[in-house]
Amino acid sequence: MSEKYDGIRGYWNGQQLLSRSGKALNPPTWFIQGWPARPFEGELWAGLGKFEQAASVIQQKQATDDEWRTLRLMVFDALTPNTPFTERVALYQDVVKQIGKP
Question: Which of 4, 61, 97, 101 is labelled catalytic?
Answer without folding.
Answer: 4
